[in-house]
Structure formats: structure tokens, C-alpha cells
Amino acid sequence: MPRKKTHYLDKIVNLHIHRDSLKTSHQKHELIETLTQLLGLSVDKVTNQLTLACAEAGIAASFTNKSAHSLFVKKHSVKPAINKLDNTIDIHIAIDKNNIVEDYPHRPLAIKPFKKSEDETRNTQAEMHEKINDNRAKAYTHVPVTFTIKSTQFPLWYEMNQAFIAKVNELANDDTKYEDECLDIILQILQSYSPANEKHLIEPTKRWFRKNISKDSVLPKIKNKPFHAALFTTIATGQLEEDPIEMTLLFKPYDHIGYIPCKLHLRDNPFFESDKLKRDEYKYTLGIQKEGKVCTLYIDFKDKDGDRCRYALKLKQEIRQVNTPFGNMPVFKPEYVWNEKLPDKEYLIIKDAPLSSTQVNIVSKTGGTDTRNIELTWYQFHERLSVFDLKQRKDLILAEVNSDSDIPIVEVTDGSANLECY
Question: Would the CA dihedral through 63, 65, 70, 71 be positive or negative?
Fold first, then answer.
């Protein structure tokens, strides 16, 4: 068998060096040992890049060669300060006087300028907090260090999102006559949104997709099921998160590429708990109730104790007619809507399936897994695969309902997704 080709990529390690750090030989050797273990590189390659980067940043720090480092490590039993990184895409390491940790000690926040209030105590506290942050930031020097590493050293962005990407493609790419067009869109998303240092590893071909994402590049739909939908569940994580469950429903009621994206409003609903989701204690049923021009999307949830809740949304389809030389024609593109001639009945898509089967990991191109980064990643797919103009439409929200009269209605009036909620 031919040997698998080894690929390389440039990885930037952002060091945040405190002015009182790197003063001792022990900490310098600890930093070298940490980076060689994390990056899978030789001591000389690490020390060469560290020396260059520190010199460019104006930091007077020298690093020894392999022989001297090995002797020091053996004599003083130096161990790596970090054994495993939480974020392997956007790496930040803080070096304080006594510690080397994975951290971004003075990450700039996109906040509005400080505004004084009528509460003098609050003003004093806010000003003090700003001053502390400013002083803390001034104590560190940001030193980006570039290393060339094997592409297999850390999971690549598309590998982290493999199940998510495959599931989106499974819904969108359900007709062989659109397979190439749909795959082209998916691959464009991957190439444009992936981290800059990984773009060269993504090839815009069906062969690459089948090898790296899913061997099923197209999954023809079942002929007697005109409606398709897929539920995606994520558990956001981050410093400001408390493991909130987020759900997105992709609804596909037509015979073309694309979908209608919907979100479930789960905030503050005590029914959903991340621990119960992880323990596989929920089941769900997903279906569509068609009545003339209205399709009701619903999801019924139940837990192992028999408690239930329902989320639903009504989509009302209005195909406006305009006069043309060839007679009246619909404004709404026919391939974007459901066939109104379909029988009025309930179309069951999924019944009593474990909710845990819908859980996917979504990681942003900066390695973020918090709510904001998950939404940013979703947006890259919605921007190209949603049938709506995302800048013009309101969010489609499935709300928790107790009766049919509680279900919100969204009127779809034309192909540009001019939505009217009432």
C-alpha cells in the first residue's frame, strides 16, 4: 500500500508573558518541555522559534539547546505545565511569575465605553474594575510564536465538526440530480469558514468529502415522505455558560437544495437538563400537520418519568400571483414551498427517538463552543443554505405551547422570505 502523505500546517501559539516571568532557568525549561510535548516537536525547533519571537517582542530571554535542556530536565525532574489543551485551534498560554497555564489573561471585550450612572458607588466600583483590568493588561506582552507541525497533531476543525457537517448534508443533499451542486455549496462553506492555516487541507471534490466527512455524499429521500426535517441539539460550554441546551430545527418541505432554519426557545425551561440529556433520559417525536396553506411543525418531548412538553410553529404559505404576458404567475419560487395539493393530514417524520441521537458538537473556527460561537458557525451554513435572506427575516422560533391556540403563526409571502408574524 502507498504511504499516506504527511501534511503540515503552521500553528500559532499565543504566549502572554508577564513582565515578572521567564526570570528563572526552571520556568524556561518548563516552557520548552510544555511546548515540545504539546506540539510534538524537537527541543531545537521549539527553542529556535521561542528565541526569535521573544527577540521580536523585545523580551530579553534566551533558551538553551537540546543537550542542555535534557540535562536540566533530568536533574530537576521538570514536567510539562500543561498536559492537554482545551482549545487546540486558537492556542493561548499565559506565563506568570510562578505558573504556565492555558489562558488569555487580558482578552479584549467588545463592550461599550464606560458610562457613568447616577449611582456614585456603582461608578466607583466600575472605574476601579476598569483600572485593574488596564493594569493587568499592561503587565503582559503578547508574543505570537509560529510553529510548523504535522496536521495530525491536533484534530482539525472539520474533524471536530464532522458529525454536524454530515447531518446538515444528509438533509440538504437528498436528490442525486442536485448532488454536485449541493456538495459544492457545502465545500465552499468549509473552505471559507475553516481556520486559515487549515484551508489548504480541504479539497473541493466529492472524493475528499466522502473520505473525510461522510461516504454518503447524497442520501435520496423516501418518495412517500414529502416533508423532511432534522433536529440538532448542542450543549454550549464556556466560562460564562452553565451547560445550556440549544436546539435548531432544519425544515425542508420542497424538492430543492436548502432548508428553513428554526430555533427552539428553551431558555429557562426546567424540563431540559444537560445531565438528563447525557444520560439519554429524553425521547422526541417530530412531525408536520398540513391543513391547506398552513403547515404546523411540532416536536413532542417526554422524559423517563412521563413528563411532557410540546414546541410548535405554524407556517402559512401565501403564493401571490402577478400578471405576466404568459398569464398569472406565482411570485414565490415553486421549488421553495410545499405542494398545496398534498393531502391534508399528519406527516410523521420521527417517532419516539432518543433525543441524545440529535446531539452534535459544533466548534467555531476559533475553537469556541459557547452559545455565541455555535450561533456564528450555524450562520455560515444558514447564509448559503437557508431559503431566506437572513438580513431581512425574523427568526423562526418554535415556542412551548399547551394548546393549538398558543402556536405562533409565521406567514411566508414570497421567495425573499418577507415574514409576517402574528
Answer: negative
